[in-house]
Structure formats: structure tokens, C-alpha cells
Amino acid sequence: ARSRGAFRGTERQVVLFVLCVCVCQSGAETLRYSLAEEMERDSFVANIAKDLGVSPSQLASRKARVVSEGNEQYFRLNLNTGVLTVKETLDRESDICTLFFKIFFENPVQLIRGEVEVRDVNDNSPVFPEKEMVLEILETASPGSRFPLETAQDRDVGSNGLQNYSLGSNPHFSLALGTGKDGAKYAELVLQRQLDREQQREVNLLLSATDGGSPPRSGTAQVRIVVLDANDNIPVFSREVYEVRVAENSPPEQLVVRVAAADPDEGSYGRVRYAFTQTSERSRQLFELNAATGEIRVSGNLDFEETKKHKLVVRATDGGGLSAHCKVHVEVLDVNDNAPEIVLTSLTASIPEDAPPRTVVALFSVRDRDSGDNGRTECAIDGDLPFSLTPTFDNYYELRTNAALDRERTAEYNITITAMDWGRSRLSSRERIFVQISDVNDNPPEFTQDVYTISVKENNTPMLRIGKVNATDADAGKNSRVSYALVREKGKEQTDVSINSENGDVYILRPLDYEEVRAFEVTVRAADGGSPALSAEALLRVLLAPRSAEPGALVAKVVAVDADAGQNAWLSYELAKATEPGLFRVGLHSGEVRTARAVTERDAPRHRLVVLVRDRGQPPRSATATLAIALVDGFSEAHLRVSEEAPAADPDGRLTLYLIICLACVSVLFLATAAAAVFVKVRRARQSMAGSLPTFPKSAAESSAGSLPRSYVYDICFSAGTVNSEFRFLRPLFPCFPAGLPHGPGDQRSSVCSANLGEEVDWAAQVRDLRGPR
């Protein structure tokens, strides 16, 4: 029994040894076969028995069987013949390129690998996505213009795949072929001859796609060219190629890029719509294009491991059918999940505005926990600010000023520092730093006006506020506090105005008279509170205005009476005519005439108003009254008397002329009568004196001044324009008689001789004195 057990143990060891040898040998042998696709069921693949060098009976005795990798069994082994056949028709286009199987033997155990390459057969023709492609081309398109066509798809590969495009014969277009970076062939229509819509509205072409199989297979599509009427401008993209990057796993509806094509035409020719063209079906599933806005958004799950780049072609077509194309290259980026960190080390919160350039404001460091390019960082300042960043060491940066500062222009800065890594999907972080600019007294006060003109009425009350001057200082704090003062010039008396040093109010110190002074000027200085103080000056001009009637002053009141009753007696007044319509107004129901505005010196001195009064009867009846208004400086008795005696105006001027002629005639007649009377009286007086006076010296009697000596000649003076035409005589100059000359009755005349020369005397008294007592 022991020997039998030992024999069995030895037999097991031998079997295990043989099995190990078979397994080891199976790793060294591989059977390789090829089979054309689309072969019928049970088609011959290979003779396994022949290839292994065994007989079919050995396959049966060793219980050989074929095992395919995967869940499906593609092959069947006939143990009687040793032939390997296919269980079902194989299609290479179903992504089955190479099939792997194993042949397992028992007794002894042996495992042999095998693989069958499914050879491609030209069993698919090129197929266009659409049987008819419609292109709208403007008749003004220039020769040489290219128009992309939809590409055909061929499920075969290699030489059996799509190889060539051809175009039917036509006089207008030729075909240009190209190969993309991925090896795919595409076709474009090239315009060879100008289109004419009036001659041919449509052009129909036959486009053929041919593969490289033997015999070759082909597919066709109709290309219908619609010739459009003239549309002068085609859409123009802002860029020919848009290159964008999108992180994988981006959420749906996320905006990728917005392509924009501008068309300067108006109406429908200027409205642009967008569409994908020459874009793979997979890319169309991952991205959606808004036909109206040109926004491309994520519509599927972007997977970096699946596809790193997507190439999209967008066609922009306006309402006239003109189109343009642009390419959009979308790069899917791997995830970069750590943003840089900004750590602020020191900060100067306030710097003076006169700080020199390159002044250090802050010190900070930047750290990114990522590695490689995702960990490399760069910093920048957002916006155009007078600051710059200077790298120092170990990712430290200094924030410095790089230009002169002006607090009056910008009092504080909100500086945003952006730190960004170098990853494909660049992450960034921001740090905001507030820096205040302290003030320096570098701005003098500025008056709002170079010259201030203030008007004040005469006879003002003392210390009357007449206005103010105003100056501002752009500085801050005490540097902006402005004080005012008058600049007193040497040699000039004290001015009549004063100014409030704090608010710039101007006051008149004493009453002023328009007739004495009509205007004067003073200089006002405004100084700030800085050290040293800065100042500015302005001219203050004070104008005096005479007192005048204020707006609304009552001038007169017109009263009308209507004998009717009721509505027929309701009266309304209105100003029918005026020398200056804007100066006076009439109350509608009161009849009061008032000033509509202030009376000025520029207004005419006399005005004539015609006031119309109208009742409410049907038909209405009306009457008018004329008012003569004089503008005067004051109301004196003489002026009032002259105003009352002033005659009514003569529109034609004839009455005035007649009055002047009559007055002249009366004056001439009166003067002639007066002269005759004087002449007669003087003559009688001389005759009377000649009979009673003693004999005069010869020298005097021989005078050539008429019948009287020169001393008896009277000067007669008339007052021009006097109403009563009165005249006065100057006292005559009598000679002095020698002593002892007999006088007689001339004793009275001696008293006359002693009268002062030039004294006014009564003429009748003089004559009586000369005649003496009767």
C-alpha cells in the first residue's frame, strides 16, 4: 500500500511538471491570422491542427477548445477537421480591429495564444451629411473667393477611406482641396467667374466624394448656389482665430467665448446669424452656439483625458446671404486647484503728496502651494495707478510710487494687487490696499471770479451787506481755510467798504450818494492757513444805482363806468398800446396801472399808454383812455406846474408851428412899441434938460454922440425870452461941475449926479429928477 501511494505521488509530480512546461510554452507561441470583414458566418479562418502540427484526432483526444477574450465568442473550432471558423459576420467599422483568442488543451495541459486581424474591406461609400447643400453667394463676390463645403464621412479607413472630391463641369466654380492637421480632407468652392443674378439666379453643381478602394466607391451631393442681389458688405470677424481655454468639468451653460462679426449694412443685411460648419459631430455635442449672439457655451461634459483640443468653425451669415468664417480653438485644461496667497508684511497707510517717486508703500509676499508652472506666480496692479511692483527676493514684492502724487486730484488710492499663477487654468487672488495721501500746502486760494461787480442803491443804510466774494482752496485742513482782507493802497483814503475775513461778505460802511460817486474799485486778497501762506487777489467793483420805482409800483388807476347791468356791466381792462410794452401792466379787473419791472436810466423819459376797457356784453363794447407818464428824478412844485400846464401832444405838429409864428409876431410888435416909447420919452427928457441946465463946456457940447453928451447915453438891456418884456435902464453918468458954477434948480440934479454908476433905478423917477419941480 505504501509503494502504491508513493507511485501516485510521483505521478502527480510528473503531471504538475508537464502542466508547468505546457503553460510556459504557451506564453511563447502566438498564432496570428487575418480575416476580411463582412465575411459570412462559418467562414474559414485557419487550420489550427495544421498550424500546430497535430492531427485532428489529437485535438479531440486532448479536448482542445477555443476561448475568446471578452464576453462574446467570435470563433468556433471543429475538432474533427481542426478548422477555425467565425461564428458571425464581423464589421471593422464597429471598432473591432483585432480579435484575441486562446486554444486550451487538456491531457497534457497546453495554452496557445492567437489573434485575428479584421482587414478593412471597402464596403462603405463616402456619405455627405446633407444630400443638398445650399450656398448663398452675392453677385458682387470677386473671383477667387472661397466657400467651404460640408465634408463627406467614410467609415472605412486607410486607403479605403475618403481620398478625393470632384465637381461637375460648370463655367463659374472650381474645386480646391485641402488637408487639415488631423489628416482629414476638405473641399472649398473657388469662384472663377463673376456671377450675374440678372442672367442666372441659381447655379446647381454636383459634388462627388471618392474613396481609395478597389473598386473605388463614391458619394454625391447637390450644391445649389443661390445668387443674391448686391449686398455691399460681408460680415467681418474681429479675429480670424479665437483661441480659448476651458477647464475640464466646466458646468453646462458656462460661456466659452463670444465670437463677433460686424456688418455695417443696415436692415436685414446687417443682421448676422451664426452657425457651426466643418465641425465634428462630437464637438457639436459638447458645445452649443447661440445663432443670434455668437456665444459658445458648454453643453456636454468636457473631459481632458478624452479630448484635449476642439476645433470649431463658425460661419456668420448676414440677411443678404453673405458669410464669413472664423476658427475657434478650444483647449481643455487640466485642473489647477490652488490659488496664490498674498501675505501683507508691512504697510504705510498715509504718505505726503510731495513724496518722491520710488517711495516704498508696502511689502508683501506671494505663495502658491501648487508646483511647477501651477506654482509659479506673477503680480500686477489693476488699473492705471501711479504705483509699481518691484520683486525683491523669495517671492517678496515692494509696492512703490512711480510718479508725483497730487492729493487735490486723488486723495486716496484703492490699490488692487492681483497674483496669478502660471497654470493652464490660471487661478488668481487679489489683495486691496488703501493708501491715503496727506495734504501739503501747494495750492493758493482761487477766486470764483477775477472781477466781482456789485450794485448798490444810493442812500443806503450804514453797514449794509451788498454781496460776497468767494475763494476756494483745493488743499485740506488748515491749508484750505481761507481768510479775506482788503488791500489798501498807499496814498489812498480809507475805503467805503469792509469785508468779513471769514466768509467774504462785503458791507457798505456809510450812505453813498449817486451824484457824488457812481463807482469805485478795491482789491480783495484771499490767503490760506498754510505755512507759508499762499494768497490770491481779485478786483471788487461797486456800482451805485439811483433810486427808481420797483416792480409793482402803482402809477395810476383807470376807472370806467358802464350804465348797463348784470353781465353787460362787467368790465375788464387791458393795455392796448404802450411806448414800451414791457414796462407797465394793467390790472384785469382793478384798472390799476403798475410797473412790470424796475425803472432804469435807459428807459425813455416819457411814455404814452392807451388803456382799453371792455364789457361782457354781446357784442362787447369798449372805450379807451390815454395816459401820459413822465419819468423824473424827483417831484418838485415847478415840475408839477410845468407838467400840468403842458399842452396835449399834437400828432401833426401844425398847432405848435402856428403858436411859434404867433408868439414871434407878438414879440416883434411889442419890442417895436417899447422901443418907440423909450425913444419919445428920452427925447422929451433931453429937450427939458436943454432948456433948464446951464451951459456945458465946449468940449462936452461938441461930442459926436448925438444931441446928448456921451455921459447921457443909456444902455438898454432886454431879458431874452421874458414873458412880460420888461427892460431896465442903467443910471446915467453925469459930469462933475466946477466949483462956483451957478446951479439954480440944478441943486436937485446934483443929487442925481452922485448916484452910483450901474445901479438899477426907476426910469420915471430919473425923468422927474431931471425936470425938477413944476
What characteristics describe this protein?
mainly beta; 774 residues; disordered C terminus; 49 strands; Cadherin-like_dom; Protocadherin/Cadherin-CA; 14% helix; 9 helices; four-stranded mixed β-sheet; disordered N terminus; transmembrane; membrane; signal
Helix share of residues?
A: 10-25%
Strand order of the largest sheet: 1-7-6-3
- Residue windows where pLDDT falls under 50 for at least 5 positions: 1-28, 636-649, 692-774
Give the number of helices.
9
**Which of globular, elongated, flat, extended, rod-shaped describes the shape?**
elongated
Largest sheet: 4 strands, mixed
Quick description:
The protein has 9 helices and 49 strands.
Textual characterization of the structure:
The protein is mainly beta. A four-stranded mixed beta sheet has the order 1-7-6-3. Strand 4 and strand 5 (83-86) form a beta hairpin. It is elongated, with a radius of gyration of 64 Å. The relative contact order is 0.04.
